[in-house]
Amino acid sequence: MSTEAELNPTSYIQHHLTNMTVDLGEGSFWVLHVDTLVMSLILGVISLGFIWMVVRKATSGVPSKTQAFVELLIEFIDDQVKNTFHGNRHAFVAPAALTIFVWVLLLNSMDFLPIDIMAWIYEHVFGLHNWRGVPTADVNTTFALALSIWILTIYFSIKVKGFGGWIKELFCAPFGKNPVLWPFNLLLNLIEYISKPLSHSLRLFGNMYAGEIIFMLLGMWAATGVAGTIFGAVLGVGWAIFHILIVVLHAFIFMILAVVYLSMAHESH
Amino acid sequence: MNINFTLVSQAIAFSVFIWFTTKFVWPYLLRAIEERQQKIADGLAAGERGKKELELASQRSSEVLKEAKQRAGEIVIQAEKRASDIIEEAKKNARVEGEKIMAGAKAEIQHEIFSARESLRQQVAGLAVQGASKILRREVSAKVHADLLASIETELK
């Protein structure tokens, strides 16, 4: 728990929503959320390292249980990508989808860890004050992922259709080639290009952030005594079980949207 | 929740992770999975082939069995015929042999009869001569009455 003198709902929530920051320079942009970065790096290395270890020993014969699990995962992703993307998916899109799904799933899953116990561990075991454990509840993470995908869609658009083809598409799709329609086409495309990364990232961020807040609100029942604590715990279990669905669903949605955007970039209108 | 440099750092981490997966994870496992799929497909095809061959073999074996049964039946029929032939021949041989023995026996009997008759005749002739000599009260000269004796003998034949 926090070491602040006064403990009220506002300070409790604020305490849990404060990132550990490092200033890299002047201005509000040059700030680094160390907790977000370190947690996501650790989880990424663990998950992909685990898959890599399995893959290194992969045989085409009878697979071990771990290999079967990883194969199941990869075949699941591959199936999803196959249904959406019609091209050489093995070159980039499918591996990227695997990375996104595994990574986002693990980042989301950090939400299951009991928020106050983890805060106590971060503070007393690692000596970290203000350490947030759920990287996808930080808008920077989801924006980073969505913007990377967004840049990749532009990159693949230009790569597949050529720069001229891309510009032509900005003006001539979706309404038609008539010069009268050019401004509308461009406007619509701009809106699409802006809304895509926004909706992509804010959907994931909003759900994870709201999940965290609800855990905190349920945690505040502990302030009302033993009965309240038990009641809060029961509700917390219910929300955590429901949250399993949300965590997996949003990792999946994020992955599928990324695949859809990338495959749209590969197809010309 | 303000946008800051974390975004850039996360984007870099994300790119590195994607690169890692694309380079070191995806191709290797995909190759293993594809090889296994090929193996399974081959195995299934081999199973199918084996089943077909088994079917053919069982068909052939039933044909062979049928043929063997037919042959066995033929052999049995031949053997029966041969057996009856042998019996028939044996019967014939036996009959011939029996006839031969019978003929031999008949000839011997004839011979016995003949020799018995001969000795009887001689005895009768002797008795007749004795009787005659007794009747005549005198000795009959065998030399003198040789003709007579001979004629009696032929009469008794």
Summarize the structure.
Chain A is mainly α. Chain A has helices spanning 9-16, 34-56, 65-84, 93-109, 115-124, 139-172, 182-219, 226-266, and strands at 21-23, 31-33.
- Unreliable spans of chain A are 1-5
Order of helices and strands of chain A: HEEHHHHHHH
Mean pLDDT of chain B: 87
Number of helices of chain B: 2
Helix-and-strand structural type of chain A: mainly alpha
Strand content of chain B: under 5%
What characterizes the major β-sheet of chain B? none
Oligomer: heterodimer
Shape, principal axes of CA atoms of chain A: globular
Helical/strand content category of chain B: mainly alpha
In percent, how much strand structure appears in the residues of chain A? under 5%
Helix content of chain B: over 70%
Mean pLDDT of chain A: 86
Query: Uncertain spans of chain B, ≥5 residues at pLDDT below 50?
Result: none
Terminal CA distance of chain A: 56 Å
The count of helical stretches of chain A stands at 8
The counted number of beta strands of chain B is 0
Strand arrangement, major sheet of chain A: 1-2
Whole-number radius of gyration of chain B?
Answer: 61 Å
Describe what this molecule looks like in 3D.
The complex is a heterodimer of chains A (269) and B (157). Chain A contains eight helices and two strands. Chain A has helices at residues 9-16, 34-56, 65-84, 93-109, 115-124, 139-172, 182-219, 226-266; strands spanning 21-23, 31-33. Chain A has a two-stranded antiparallel sheet. In chain A, helix 6 (139-172) runs antiparallel to helix 7. The longest helix of chain A has 41 residues, at 226-266. In chain B, helix 1 packs across helix 2. Chain B is rod-shaped, with a radius of gyration of 61 Å. The interface between A and B is large, with 51 and 32 residues.
